[in-house]
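User: quick one
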Amino acid sequence: MEMERHLLNLLHSTLHIKQIKQVHALIVINYPTLTTDFVKSLLRLSIVVYARNVFDKIPHPSQVLYNSLISTYSKLSLKKNALEAFVLMHGSGTRVVGSTVAPVMKSCTSLLAVELAKEIHSLVVKCGFSSDVFVQTPLMDFYAKTCDIESAKKVFDGIFMKDPICYNCLISGYSKSGDVIAARRLFDEMSERTVVSWNSMISCYANNGYYHEGLSIFERMQAEGCSPNEISVTTVLSICAKLRDLETGLRVKKFIDENDFHLNMIVSTALLEMYVKCGAIEDARHEFDCMDRRDVVTWSAMIAGYAQNGKSSEALELFERMKNEPIEPNDVALVSVLSACSQLGSVGAGERIGNYVESRGFIFNVYVASALLDMYSKCGNISKARQIFNKMPHKDVVTWNSLIAGLAANGFAEDAINLYEKMKEIRVIPDDITFVGVLTACTHAGLVELGLEFFRSMKLDYDITPTIEHYACIVDLFCRSGRLKEAYEFICIMEVEPNVVIWGTLLSASRIHSNAKLAELSVKKLLALEPENSGTYVLLSNIYASAGRWQESLRVRNLMKINRVQKTTACSWIEMDNKVHKFLVGDTSHARSNEVYRIVDGLAMQLTTASYNLNSDLEF
DNA sequence: TTAGGGTTAG
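Assistant: Done. Structure below.
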């Protein structure tokens, strides 16, 4: 007996495979009755593959041994193995007990193994575990997480001694199926709430768009003496991000600092994200730099933050830096950096990332592939964009929208319209953005009647309420065909208030078609909408001047001075060999400024020779 | 039982 105990103790003092094999050999030859204990010891040490090999050679493993195997698989997150072992156990006729069912049920939930879960449910009923809260709760959680809220409620009702965990699970279930009222009713019913109960209720509100209600539960939680934990503040920060509420976000940050929660990476990333969404990109970067651990989510959030805030160069830079880290860029990081390349029109970097995407098989990811397609089309490589589209095995409405808009923007109006027809053929439902693309295509091709037809179809066939963008397309459609009167009449009957884009479109068309009356009207509307825009004042002044109305022209110039309107400096830039070259009006600071101007002058000369009137749209 | 990041138009 002494020797036997010694053998198993030996195992605990080593994890070396050679010694394990020696112990195993001794057991096989001299102590075969020790095999079950040997397997149990291995499982306790998480040496699960070896344990399983030995387990498989045992003719009739005991119920206890099956339990150890399943719970070890479950503990190590080897969920499929846990389910497979359970099926084996049940098939062998070994009696199943409550403590076996709980980990198996949890594995079913995370693997969404619906069939097996339902079989286990009937087994639970048959075996009479119905009073066991440790079996019922994971079972209810399964239904809650798979959005079968009716079944979850039934299981909940059948539980005799309901603890807070039961309530919390069902609250999450209601949250997932969007029934905020039912979740709140349950929450109010609870006689005893844990921090998880409060968190579940906050995230229920957060996930269903009731942000202010979420914040008020967070307040109440503290007022009632329940101390928020890392999960509470993370959820609340995500609410602040959604609400763009920097003030509340900063109050939460103070709480985080006081409680040392910033040591938690998820909390810090949520804080970073809150800064990003509130436009405080510098603070986000500061948080990023202060973090001592960052995972792929942290990196992606920062890269996306830059991309979303128009800081595309910074997004690209950070992506490059990420390559020196032991973190592989994932789909989210790629989507964000591709979006940055699109904004920059950065062909070189875009292609590099494109090659990476294709070589790593990310083309199968509809988000990444759509962003890639969009990048190519924005960088002017429409044939490559088409190629990506054709290669994509899964496409969603965004994919179709991206190529339709890309074709329209690159001058392939007919192809864009044909693509839209094909999209309808294979029954992908167009959305509002699809129609912006389609209408833009019609605008570019001068297809007024077809455009109007699409506009009608959008409302009639797809029940899409036109937004200001759609109205702007129609105004542009009339304008480009010189049908200014119809454009103006359309603006007058629009169901939304015309904005600067609409009046700007009419203005530019009025100038091209020398309609001083409509130009004057549009400019006045523009001035009312954005009195700080210097360009509009200059335009109006020019309009009066060219009509010989000098007094009025002067008055506008004075008005500009009174309103202290500054002319904003126009700026353009181009990327060459990974370097961005920036140019301002009249700027001679560039090292090769002389050459640049020589080329510009040459181009102007060529244009004049080709009988273009360079200032045609400035004159009346 | 409760937490953090993404694509399309204008």
